[in-house]
């Protein structure tokens, strides 16, 4: 059972459905949310969409973004970080998209009846049992709380959050321009006393973001004349993590588990990494006889990476708001290798040191058990290349519990 039909919840559902598992997604809104929110994914996150079976439709609604420019208040370039059109995951290092279009792609790929809209979940109890507003109680083998920053799942279980920095209020304006804007086609970050962001998203869609000062409501801030505003909203940007991401068979994913400032563009990507990390583990525990302790590795692997991502975003936000000393730091940073925004993962509970290079957490969700090995359909053997959270170690750890791929309990 998944609570929340945003992109994280629907991607988790697709990953589980592709493993042959029965999934229901409960969504309180009767219709898909029509306004844009997330706009960026890196190459590894796009590879997760490949594993979910929606790469081709995603490529049709997105565009490769050439990079990030940090500019001063006079729009003079302080630093530029290029993004490759084809990175190490075989996809653009950075892609921009309109979230309603992504939501439609994910929903269309799910079997009919998986998403149940207009269902208001008011609590989740250990068991787990999902409690709906109409009094319906639904028992499930596992519940994935993908219901956002104000997660009902998290609150009903009494799980607190840890704030990592003071919150900031930003005005976000999305607009459609009838005429193309003459500009560099990447993302512009204005590093000044009032930080701001500007970009063309896809097609004729543009976005502006302005940090608000105390007491401001953003009424005096707006894009230039010409574009038609389709959304104008004040957001509070948090940096925080949930105190725990698992309680029995209930899990928190995406914004329910962690919130990052938007400066590194990793909010949605972090949630997709949660989904791909947890999906194959649920499959092995619920349907393949792996020990329940395997589920303990979800938070143990994902939390350090989420914290690293949040710290990177905080550092970029700090550098954007400073004077000359910070601007010199930005110029120096432009000479460092910055092809990837998301940090690489280090060792985790399922990774044993030695015996070949292992990159834990890479998005190989579509592996299969062949004999005593976990392999991808293209024949790459887990453990000799990047693997999904140390699959070579998993093979050694639970080999006696694994049944051939495709078998069901």
Automatic annotation (TrEMBL):
One of its GO terms (molecular function) is FAD binding. Residues 1-193, 230-311 form the FAD-binding domain. One of its GO terms (biological process) is 3-(3-hydroxy)phenylpropionate catabolic process. It comes from the Bacteria. It holds the Pfam family FAD_binding_3. Keywords: Oxidoreductase. InterPro entries: FAD-bd (IPR002938), FAD/NAD-bd_sf (IPR036188), PheA/TfdB_FAD_monoxygenase (IPR050631). PANTHER family: 3-(3-HYDROXY-PHENYL)PROPIONATE/3-HYDROXYCINNAMIC ACID HYDROXYLASE, FAD-BINDING MONOOXYGENASE. This is 3-(3-hydroxyphenyl)propionate hydroxylase. It comes from Actinokineospora fastidiosa. The gene is mhpA.
